[in-house]
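Fold it.
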Amino acid sequence: MVDVVVVGLVCRDIVVAVEELPASGSVPVRTRIETLGGAANQAVAARQLGLSAGLVGVVGHDAAADLVLDRARRDGIDVSAVVRRAGATTPLVVGVVEADATHRLLEHVPAEALLTPADVRAGAPLLGAARAVVADLQQPDDAVAETVRLGAAAGALVVLDGAPEDPDALADVWDGVSVLRADDDEIAAYVGSVPEGTDAVADAARELVAGGPDVVALGAGSAGNVVAWHGGVRLFPRLGADPVDATGGGDAFVAGLLRALLDGADPETAGWWASAAAALTVTRLGGRPDLDAATVAREAARAAGR
């Protein structure tokens, strides 16, 4: 049995910090970080929060794949279901972060490094042993749909993170989704329009819960995140100081939410866990989290009681 299996992008991350990007020309790099990245950061965060974790994804037959798979193994992540695709180049994401926390992502994700339904089916032994399955919607819709089918058939808590390219692509598997997480700019894929203001986001979250998932977490801009469940909805404000780099906040949010839900916590408590995990992650450069369950639990309890 594995607690969390993340199905999605496995990539090499390079993060560079600069004072300010010029209109043209060069600029000195103050800090440089190279590590495992993509949706794999959700698996990293899950491990840091005391859960066992595995990955289903695609890398190439290149030196970058050796680096990211070695890093994942050292993080204690099961990579037995990661496909090493002959002729493929391992995806690369370059993050550029300015001193004011403005960040830009340069992504090279070749088509051959995306998951296919067959790749997902090849990971069925790992998916079938999972308590929770996270489907990264940066992958093709048919691979996401196959992930939901297999996860739901195994009785796992199935999490969708993001939005599909085709709003109707997941209609046949929607009943298998337990948790939905979407950022501000992804909500329209599910409700048909962009909600304006936190009340509208809350209405969208209620609508989505009424139509399927047990828990829905939607981005609400600078106000934070709205989490809805059967019988309740709440705005969870952003916690902590202004972020140094917001890149990894969403992945940490999902991991915190899952840790609490898998422990049997109610959705409101899980929302505080998610918010605390995100707040602790964005205080440092790069998307890679640096979490521990005791600190997240303490910060979540403090925020809930304030």
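The chain has a mean pLDDT of 95.
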